[in-house]
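Fold this sequence, please.
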Amino acid sequence: MASARSTRAFALPAEVGVDAILITNGTNRRYLTDFTGDDHAIDEPGGIAVLGTEGIWLFAPSTNLPWAQAEANADTTVVDWGTDWTLAVSNLVNEQGWRSLGFEDSTTTVAAYNKLTGHLSEDVTLMAVGNIVDTLRACKTSDEIELLKTALHMTDVAFEAAAARAKAGMTEKELADIVAEELKNAGSEGESFPTIVASGPNAAKPHHAPGDRVLQEGEPVIIDMGALHKGYAGDLTRTIWFGEPSPELVTMYRNVQAAFNAAIGAGKPGMTGVEFDAIARDVFREQGTDQYFVHSLGHGLGLRVHEAPSASPRSRDTLTAGMVVTVEPGLYVPGEGGVRIEDVVLITEDGVMNLTNAPKNVL
């Protein structure tokens, strides 16, 4: 009997009007087959999957074949792709008598598309299906939620330990190394993304690579970090400081805190990603600070640190029970600094459940 996850997946080809879907997105491949192998490069995949209406095929090179066979779930048939995976996939299409094959256009290279076209019969249609497979990952299963809770707990523990060791006089890079060490101590497989430590004026950059700048008293220090547990990502941002915060930092922090509290308090199923984002954005607009909120309120979290759904002015998503979303309003004033606060919430049947427990400053 197929798993609940596979049963949902088997409905996708018919939903987009094809016989099967070629899976070239490595995250979707792992989600469907449980095979954890990574791609060396976009033109050197660790495996290729094909999703049918009753089964999944996982094609692997000889070097990854034993690994794939050991990890693949019961709904997946593992196949040696031989010398050319496009030929192996084409042979499967012909064997199954399929007349249409969907493909993930954001991760299928032009070279692979051209090869497939050359191998397939003229009466077989290749059709782009966009991110239809990604939508499966937006609503988490109970097992996935438990994995995410563990990743988030590790992140909380590591943050507290790192913050306790942080002090003025060390560099951003030194603090980032401490975060990495504490993530490992907490049981993490590694970092779900490169840790951000941004201090003083650097805190005005939402994404900043830790450097040699020395942390100083009274200024903002943004720490954005995440543990990794069985492939599932944690994500947490805190803004800390040493000694007494500057008056500018106090004002900025209170403004972000107000937007954060408003969003956490109002999130619920049925709300669109645009509406969720607007809760925080409206608070900033009332403050007259909205020009300094330069990114979206949040994003989905799972096997990737950024996945569906999106909570942004451009989102096309609707929040549904089972989705896991970050809530991370921030303000960034060039030349002065910035503040970001981020927790992760589970959308429930009647609201949100905060899955983050790391302490945060309250002003």
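The first strand starts at residue 20 and ends at 23. The radius of gyration is 23 Å.
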